[in-house]
Write a structure and sequence with these properties.
The protein is of the alpha/beta class and 320 residues long. The chain has a single domain (3-314), classed as Aldolase class I (TIM Barrel, Alpha-Beta Barrel), CATH 3.20.20. Helices cover 35% and strands 11% of the residues. It has helices at residues 3-8, 64-77, 95-105, 126-133, 146-153, 157-170, 196-211, 227-236, 239-248, 276-281, 291-294, 311-314; strands at residues 34-38, 81-85, 108-113, 136-140, 181-185, 217-220, 263-266, 272-273. It starts with a helix and ends in a 6-residue tail after the last helix. InterPro entries: Aldolase_TIM (IPR013785), ArsS-like_C (IPR024521), rSAM (IPR007197), rSAM_ArsS-like (IPR026351), rSAM_sf (IPR058240).
Length: 320
């Protein structure tokens, strides 16, 4: 369990999350729309805000056996969306097999990428592979200028990301309706993101004017106080203040559509979590089952495991 969960319990000025929502919203919906798979912590980057602490020195990867269990479960439940994340998911040796199989059982497959990994000679062929498979790409781009992004990800990462985005555009991503290219913006510090609509317009104007890049949509997310970002908050003395800001920004209108109500997150070892943030926090579903345990069984609603980090998904317009 992430140490910050224990720190939450000392924040008496922040009410327990469950006291803020309708008891019915503490349970999942009766249907499962999204199967999210975290297929490893290995990454070519070690971003300062990464909630799963991914990096080049991590070794955890999902096996093909666990992947096959996920595919079987998705087939049985007729899951609408398979969402593949990491780490850098491309660095899992069975990544291409997984994407190919996922596209056979599901009409909507998402891959979350940091872009820069796709310049590595070992993975650059995946750009065309994505286009052939028609997967939706969700890429993290901390900013549309080099200095701000390089502070978060390292020198040169902005230029690398731009090169990959231009290659994706050349193949039709962001232009062809079947090749969706979306971006995610996370603040670089203990502050909130700007208005999503305004930020998307700003990104689109600057990226197209400066680099000829187009994309479909931008999502602005509140940083969840987990992993490296949580460690930064503790180290800098900002944890209490940041959590108070999240609580003050609580929007009850976001609760009904929270991602944890309509998805399940599978870790590299097959363990199940209500969301990727609970995965990062080390908070498995209450039954502590694995994806293998769910094969051949009907899907049933369950109680969601919640704590004060859930305020990050209900602040403002929401981050689910």
């Amino acid at each position: 369990m992430d140490e910050i969960i224990n720190d939450f319990h000392d924040l008496d000025q922040i009410p327990v999350f469950q006291t803020q929502i309708d008891p019915e919203m503490m349970n999942t919906a009766d249907r499962l729309d999204v199967l999210q798979m975290n297929i490893g912590r290995v990454c070519n980057l070690a971003c300062k805000h990464c909630h799963v602490c991914a990096g080049p020195n991590r070794t955890e990867v999902m096996s093909r056996e666990v992947m096959a269990d996920c595919i079987q479960f998705a087939r049985e439940q007729q899951v609408q969306t398979i969402d593949i994340t990491g780490g850098a998911p491309e660095m899992n040796p069975d990544f291409e097999w997984l994407v190919t199989e996922a596209c056979k059982v599901c009409s909507h497959v998402i891959v979350r990428t940091n872009l820069t990994v796709l310049l590595n000679p070992e993975y650059e062929h995946l750009i065309e592979f994505y286009a052939r498979q028609k997967v939706e790409i969700v890429c993290s781009l901390p900013y549309y200028r080099a200095d701000q992004m390089d502070r978060v990800r390292g020198t040169g990462t902005f230029d690398e990301a731009i090169q990959v985005l231009q290659k994706l555009n050349t193949l039709g991503y962001g232009k062809n309706p079947e090749l969706v290219l979306n971006m995610v913006y996370n603040p670089a510090g203990a502050f909130f993101p700007p208005d999503q609509t305004a930020m998307e317009l700003e990104y689109k104007e600057h990226l197209e004017a400066d680099f000829g890049i187009v994309f479909n949509a931008l999502y602005t997310l509140y940083n969840n106080p987990m992993g490296r970002f949580g460690a930064f908050l503790r180290r800098s003395g900002n944890l209490s203040g940041y959590m108070k800001k999240l609580y003050d920004a609580f929007n009850p209108a976001t609760v009904e559509a929270l991602m944890c109500r309509f998805q399940i997150s599978v870790d590299y070892d097959g363990k199940l979590y209500d969301c990727d943030f609970n995965l990062a926090a080390g908070l498995p579903i209450f039954s502590k089952e694995t994806i293998a345990d769910w094969i051949g069984k009907p899907y049933t609603a369950r109680k969601i495991r919640m704590d004060k980090h859930c305020y990050a998904c209900t602040a403002g317009a929401g981050s689910s």
